Hints:
Layout lengths: L1 H26 L9 E4 L4 E5 L11 E6 L4 E9 L3 E5 L7 E9 L2 E12 L13 E6 L10 E3 L4 E3 L5 E4 L7 E5 L4 E2 L2 E2 L2 E2 L2 E3 L8 E2 L2 E2 L1 E2 L5 E7 L10 H18 L5 E5 L16 H11 L4 E4 L13 H11 L5 E5 L2 E5 L3 E2 L12 E2 L3 H11 L8 E4 L5 E4 L2 E4 L3 H10 L5 E5 L6 E3 L11 E5 L9 H5 L13 E8 L2 E8 L9 E4 L19 H13 L7 E5 L8 E6 L4 E2 L2 E5 L2 H12 L15 E8 L7 E6 L5 E6 L7 H4 L3
Parallel strand pairs: 1-7, 8-17, 8-18, 20-21, 21-22, 24-27, 27-30, 30-32
Antiparallel strand pairs: 2-5, 3-4, 3-6, 4-5, 6-7, 8-11, 9-10, 9-12, 12-16, 13-19, 14-15, 20-33, 23-24, 25-26, 28-29, 31-32, 33-34, 35-36, 36-40, 37-38, 37-41, 39-40, 41-42
Amino acid sequence: xxxxxxxxxxxxxxxxxxxxxxxxxxxxxxxxxxxxxxxxxxxxxxxxxxxxxxxxxxxxxxxxxxxxxxxxxxxxxxxxxxxxxxxxxxxxxxxxxxxxxxxxxxxxxxxxxxxxxxxxxxxxxxxxxxxxxxxxxxxxxxxxxxxxxxxxxxxxxxxxxxxxxxxxxxxxxxxxxxxxxxxxxxxxxxxxxxxxxxxxxxxxxxxxxxxxxxxxxxxxxxxxxxxxxxxxxxxxxxxxxxxxxxxxxxxxxxxxxxxxxxxxxxxxxxxxxxxxxxxxxxxxxxxxxxxxxxxxxxxxxxxxxxxxxxxxxxxxxxxxxxxxxxxxxxxxxxxxxxxxxxxxxxxxxxxxxxxxxxxxxxxxxxxxxxxxxxxxxxxxxxxxxxxxxxxxxxxxxxxxxxxxxxxxxxxxxxxxxxxxxxxxxxxxxxxxxxxxxxxxxxxxxxxxxxxxxxxxxxxxxxxxxxxxxxxxxxxxxxxxxxxxxxxxxxxxxxxxxxxxxxxxxxxxxxxxxxxxxxxxxxxxxxxxxxxxxxxxxxxxxxxxxxxxxxxxxxxxxxxxxxxxxxxxxxxxxxxxxxxxxxxxxxxxxxxxxxxxxxxxxxxxxxxxxxxxxxxxxxxxxxxxxxxxxxxxxxxxxxxxxxxxxxxxxxx
Length: 651
């Protein structure tokens, strides 16, 4: 009986203690409204609204815990049945924090909030405003007339640098159009001109931006970086390092000049995000580790959309979260730059079918009109997009995507000198004012060669030969800007700057079916015919013709060919297949025993080729190419000129 009695006594004591603890816990009944966002000055005070009269005690501690696990004790300096006031710990930094109230030894969680440390600007936003803030320079002074936008609404800062927007927060961010003569801070290569909003549409958010004065008004360089297609395949990491080494060496040669870059889309390859574990974080890690002191503004390409998305917006989420808004503007010096997204993924279905359209949305066009309303007509406009506006055809160019919205884009740019800079094709072509499709508009298109050339395939199959489908060497464009004067040149990776064309002695260029002995005899006829086109274009011959590939050609360039006897040979513009690309990539892609269909990335017939006919096989030629800026490049071509991969390899 004593044993049972002892058990009952212990049980009674346990129940008594438990009830006592529950009563104590009930006494710690604090209820208040915790906003998702708190804007507060460093060491400032914040008033919380109490619910149901259940306020904390003034002897309690208000504790913030950062994502790094650091706790900040914030004293409660006053309390009532309706509210209580907390003074922020002076060491607290901006960011997300968990919230606790501590009473004696007990610590009770109340959720979390994002705290933003702000300066007191003495400004109360208007009724209906949901985003406001100040744009200031490094000395803390506000900067007036800075354009600010949420991707729908556009406004400017007042004389004190303060702006406000009645935003529905549709795009989830707010950004500034960096004014000329200033830069923004960087996160690695990413300029921090935008802020990802955190509050609900009806929550008022304060977002401040900081600018730094720089001297970019007179001159600077912009590197136009076409498709990179990094995907952890085809030896792309090694080849990408060759590109970044080349670009770094170029920058080192021009130290003291201001330099920027625009990546024209397809930095990654969505098809391999999941299978190869390579997407934006890996891209940023690679580019940040290999390129220093360079801000890169990014354009969204079709392969930068998530194929698992089921709408245009959901396909863009990872890009928006990890890279930048999909459209925005900025100024460098006296030039206005506009980045637009001309890839519409509205028909994405979450599979790898990836049915996209090349079109600029009405939403962007409306935003662009508002953005340009703050830009004088005398200001050159550079519009960076992924997909091309035009495309070469025999005798000229055609529109290459939605005509209706293209014309609306042209209408918005009417009266400006506008330069479209695009990628996507992995080839090179240029359109100028006066070309038939442009008419009297002062419009240009610069479709820039790809950093990856043929998706890194030629350099993978034939190291030392890094060329695109049209024979353009992998590389990047260099724009030299002086005031409102724009000049451009193409820089081939691993080659000197004067490498601007390539010549072939066609007496020594020939392809045949014997070059692809491993091609199966039962390969589809359509596949065989593709390769036969190369054979037909370059049979064994002694016609004494010379083929010249001038990849960055436009109609204002001048080509002269003089033979050793002083005779001027008349060049004939032709569409052609680049022989080096055939030898380095296409032959090897077709020469596969398991070939069942036409390989990807094989040689394409394209413009910017010229032929001349020499008198005989031994006649030497002097080939001179001059661009519209007076730059001249010359080759003393000794003939016969050998055609082999080794002869054309990067030395």
